[in-house]
Structures are given as structure tokens and as C-alpha cells.
Amino acid sequence: MNASYNNFRLVNTYGAFGSVTRERHELVFEGTEDFVETAATVWREYGFKAKPGDVMRRPRQVAPYHLRLDWMVWFLPFTVVVSGHGVHVNGYQRWTLRLAKRLLEADRGVLGLMGHDPFAGERPGMVRVKFYKYSYTTAAERKATGAWWERRLLGEFLPAMDLEALGSV
What pLDDT, in 10s, does the model give residues 95-104? Predict the structure, then answer.
């Protein structure tokens, strides 16, 4: 697109990325009221303001600025190795663990940066982060299902943790 307008000098091609892809890896933060994970544990998703999450939600346009937390979380999948054997996380950035801890504390400042708090300001017992591959649906799929995205679970980014497990992060 930028190249087609370049003759008019209306836009430039400056930016971190020269194209937008139809597929992307995404992290989905989840919490549960349980303090011990069992087969009956029910996990609920936190939502971000602009990131994919709910497959039924239309992709967001945020301009001219990025939402900082969404932007930072968007980069985390680039640190992960995805292979036929699953997902390999080679360590965690400290801020990611602190984000998980703040979710466990139901920190109002952090929850204000989120698009959806499934616990309505109450503390969850544990949080975890799943690793998905998101793809746009086709026009026919969107018409039939109403879904904008399809997603496939590839693995786990951060295992279930409670406040004690995160300690003094």
C-alpha cells in the first residue's frame, strides 16, 4: 500500500514492519478461581484492548499510537521456538512475570490497561498463558460463523502459577 501512494509523498515506509500477515502467534492470559489445578478447573480469558483474543471480536484499529501493553505482549511470541514437538520458551522476561503477578493481585492499574477482566476486579487463584496460532477466517467462514479469527492451541507459554510461585518477582 505504501508504495502505491509514495509518488504523492503522503505516506512513508518507515516502520518496524513492511507488511501485515494473515497469521500470527498470540498469547492468551487466563485465570481461575481455583488455587489447585484439577481436571475440573475452569479457566477464563483476560482480554486486551486491541489484540486478538475472542475469535468473534472484530480486529481493532488503533492509531496513530500503539497501546503499550498490547504492543509489548505482541512481541513475546517472537522469543518462542515453535516446532513439530511443541512450544519451547527459553526463559521469561521479568516484566511478563510481573504482569502475571499483578493479575493475581487484581492490581487496578494493570486491570485498567486490559480490555476485559473476567474476575470483575476480584483476585484469581492462579494465572497461566497459552500460546496460539491465529489466522483470519475466510469471508465464507465469517459469514457462516461470525468469527473473525480461527485459532489453534500450540502449547503453553507460562504454566499455571499462584502468588507464592511468583514470589518476589
Answer: 999 999 999 9
User: CA 113, CA 49: separation in Å to the nearest integer?
Assistant: 8
Q: Are 50 and 60 in contact (CB under 8 A)?
A: yes
Contact assessment for residue 31 and residue 126, using Cβ atoms and an 8 Å cutoff: yes
Q: Which residues contact 168 (CB under 8 A, 6 or more apart)?
A: none
Q: What is the pLDDT of residues 44-94, one digit of tens each?
A: 999 999 999 999 999 888 777 789 999 999 999 999 999 988 899 999 999
The three three-digit cell numbers of residue 108, written as one number: 487496578
Residue 43: phi, psi to the nearest 5?
-100, 140
* Count of beta carbons in the 10 Å neighbourhood of residue 60: 13
Contacts of 111 (CB under 8 A, 6+ apart): 103, 117, 121
Closest CA to 21 of 64, 47, 52: 52
Contact 25, 153 (CB under 8 A): no
25: left (phi over 0), alpha (psi -120 to 50) or beta: beta
Q: How far apart are CA 157 and CA 163, in angstroms?
A: 18
d(CA 158, CA 169): 14
Q: At residue 132, what are phi and psi to the nearest 5 degrees?
A: -120, 155
Taking residue 90's Cβ as centre, other Cβ atoms within 10 Å add up to: 7
